[in-house]
Amino acid sequence: MLDAAMASGNAADVEMVGELAKRTNPADQIEIDLLLGFYERGLPPLIEVAVIPPPDPVRVMLDAAIASGKDSDVEAVGKLAKAASPEDVAEIDILLADYRAERKRLKDEAAAAERARLAGAKFWQYWKGEGQIGASHSGGNNKSTGFNVGVALARKGIDWSQRMRAQADYQRTSGRTTLERYLVEYEPQVKVSDRAFAFGLGRWERDRMLGYTARWNASGGLGYKVIDSKAMSLNLKAGPAWRQTDFVQTGRDSEISGLAGLDFGWQVSPTLRLTQTASTIVGESNTSTSSLTALNAKLTGGLSARIAYSAEIASHPPAGVENVDTLTRFTLVYGF
Predict the structure, then answer these.
(1) What digits encode the pLDDT tens for the residues 33-74?
(2) One domain for residues 220 and 90
(3) Does the N-terminal or the C-terminal CB of the chain have fewer CB atoms within 10 Å?
(4) Which of 81, 175, 162, 158 has its CA nearest to residue 117?
């Protein structure tokens, strides 16, 4: 614009455009003053002033989103950019296509590296887990001391995944054992498709308060991932089972049965997670259901606080034993 005003020979236009150029390009004021000085003296300019237009805010936002590497942000900003600058739709589509192709390449490389790492891993490598501990003590008329400890391990391979869990609960009240429960469980799973899987389950339990000194369960079958996302997951499974129980009063009993179960997880917030695990074993002489609901609140690092509610339900318990037994735990949990 300044060059055009000088070429017109109108001094008023030159002065007006010159002032406007200095206001809109404050970093170029010295060069603009020199150019105007040459014009007033009738001398040819020795320099040329490059007036740089301000950056396009839409393009600035899109570039920032692409630099962040967050796919959801890039797609959202890209959609807004095309709505705000319809004349640049073709250029924006090219930028988005290049971004998607690069992200896919990086994800494919990361997935290949992870598969290679897992393929070469030993059985004892890459396990993750958590340990929990809780205790209680009361005095006065009813003196009570109790504790509960537990550990859970998990390992995810290329097609196989494994879970192990052990739990112990013990309490004495006024010199009498009122709670003594132990559990050990192992569950391998093998991937059948993106959502379907086959599983095996072995479990040993001991709970004299529920009328048995040992109970063995072995089962296997198929499962399906109904919901499978980072925030929420829901797995359903079912299959035949075998159960053997050593009762305190009536001796040993074994039977063929069926198992149905579910595993649910919900990341409510970055620091709060809700989980639900339940299974039902249906037999000819008894149907038993085990349920565990837990709410984890992250405290710091790998340390969390947990409140958990478990229920054991039996359709035909031994004589003198209630058919519903519940337990509430408050524990500290450390993930590793």
Answers:
(1) 777 776 777 655 544 545 556 667 667 777 888 888 888 888
(2) no
(3) C
(4) 158
In terms of domains, do 163 and 36 share one? no
CB 306 within 8 A of CB 295: yes
67, 204: one domain: no
Tell me, yes or no, whether 170 and 210 share the same domain. yes
Match 């396990």 to its residue by tokens.
127
For residue 47, is it within any domain? no
pTM: 0.67
Contact 323, 314 (CB under 8 A): yes
The whole domain housing 77 covers 57-119
| Helix spans in the chain (H) | 2-8, 11-24, 29-40, 57-68, 71-84, 89-119
Question: What's the distance, Cα to Cα, between the start and end of the chain in Å?
Answer: 67
> Which residues in 64-85 are b (16+ Cβ under 10 Å) and which e?
ebbeeeeeeebeebbeebbeeb
